Amino acid sequence: MSSDEFDPMIERLFARSPQMADAPLFAAGVEAKLQSSSRVRTVALTVAGLIGGVIAVRESTNVSFTLSDAQAPVAGRAIGQGIQSASLNVQEAVGSGLAQFGLADLSLGSMGGMQLFWLAAGALIALAAAGVMKLSQEV
Amino acid sequence: MAQSLLAKSLKDRHDVELAALAAAGGRREFGELARRHGSAVRGLLRRMGAQPSEADDVAQDAFLQAFEKCAEFRGEGTFAAWVKRIAARLYLKRKARNARYVAELEPEQAEGVAAPDTAGHVDLDEALKSLSEVERLCVSLCHGAGLSHPEIASAMNLPLGTVKSHVKRGLDKLRARLSPDGERSGRAAHVF
């Protein structure tokens, strides 16, 4: 048999592969893995979102609205007072909520914005480093 | 009822359509693709020399990777060929990681022995066993996964000329084994 005839024959033989008996099982395994990886991703994103949310709420409730009489017109003053009272209400609600989860003594609020920024940046860098490590293992 | 309707509609869809739906996050659609082409991918990996369980692991990883990259599949070739390429590359990486890299093998040392052809039948899987590990890999990558010689050279970190000669030697051995007028086939050989 010449190579002109043989090469297409080999291609055909390679293309022909019998359906394995456990093909549905294999597909189910792939689907299950996809499902679990998407669940892990969802949980990770939810946790990250919750942590970010808690930090953001605590930070925003610590903001002091300093709209003085001389600096703000009457309407602005009213809005300022409204925001301030709403902020106090939110702060109380969040405080009691955190107390229920045993996080009343969470000292994130006492951290400066810069400290929180560096903390978040550190966590992101660690995540990125872990990603690079995983990638380098795969390559 | 709704389940069976969905299953029926999945079965009726073309690979490219399913891949597009999978790219939008459709896991069921991707599951159908895995059902259709899982055996072909696993078969290729076994032909490359992977043990059945290893072939299944790599094939599963390949499908997971394909799901992540599904948006990159444009339907220029077949979906099966696309996943086969991913799987073949993953298998090579795995082999390299396990420090059992074929480049260091002496072809004659690694040469396998095909099972006796008692029934007068010769099939590709059996014939591949008569090739050395590196020849088997090169032939499978070239004719099974559809990689070009330069792509194989790059994936296996071998010189292009070496890859070409491994493919040629492998094909010569397969020809001798598979073709009816081959040197080993004094008896009638039926190719599956």
From TrEMBL, chain A:
Keyword entries, A-Z: Membrane, Transmembrane, Transmembrane helix
Organism: Brevundimonas aurifodinae
Transmembrane segments: 116-135
Name of protein: MFS transporter
Domain of life according to the entry: Bacteria
TrEMBL record, chain B:
Record GO terms (molecular function): DNA binding; sigma factor activity
InterPro entries: RNA_pol_sigma-70-like, RNA_pol_sigma-70_dom, RNA_pol_sigma70_r2, RNA_pol_sigma70_r4, RNA_pol_sigma_r2, RNA_pol_sigma_r3/r4-like, WH-like_DNA-bd_sf
Keyword check for Transit peptide: no
Listed GO biological process terms: DNA-templated transcription initiation
Domain RNA polymerase sigma-70 region per the UniProt entry, residue ranges: 33-100, 127-176
SUPFAM superfamilies documented for this protein: Sigma2 domain of RNA polymerase sigma factors, Sigma3 and sigma4 domains of RNA polymerase sigma factors
Keyword check for Lipid biosynthesis: no
This protein's UniProt keywords: DNA-binding, Sigma factor, Transcription, Transcription regulation
Pfam annotation, one family: Sigma70_r2
Family classification: Belongs to the sigma-70 factor family. ECF subfamily.
The protein, known as: RNA polymerase subunit sigma-70
Species of the source: Brevundimonas subvibrioides
Source taxonomy: Bacteria, Pseudomonadati, Pseudomonadota, Alphaproteobacteria, Caulobacterales
